[in-house]
Amino acid sequence: MRKISNRKGFTLIELLVVIAIIAILAAILFPVFAKARDRAKATTCLNNMKQLSLAFLNYFEDHEQMFPPY
User: Fold this and answer.
1) Distance in angstroms (rounded) separating the CA atoms of residues 58 and 35
2) How many domains does the chain have?
3) Has residue 13 been placed in a domain?
């Protein structure tokens, strides 16, 4: 006769399936996050260039139409 126990928990197969699903989702989402990070870097670069151009124009206007020395 087999003894019936009231053990509760997850089986190894269930845990492996969940881990596999998480790995698949991570593999799908990784390129999406990489593209978003690249777009954020490009936007930051563009904003920095705008700030530099405004600084040059302000200097030009404040210093008798001369650009800053290099």
Assistant:
1) 35
2) 1
3) no
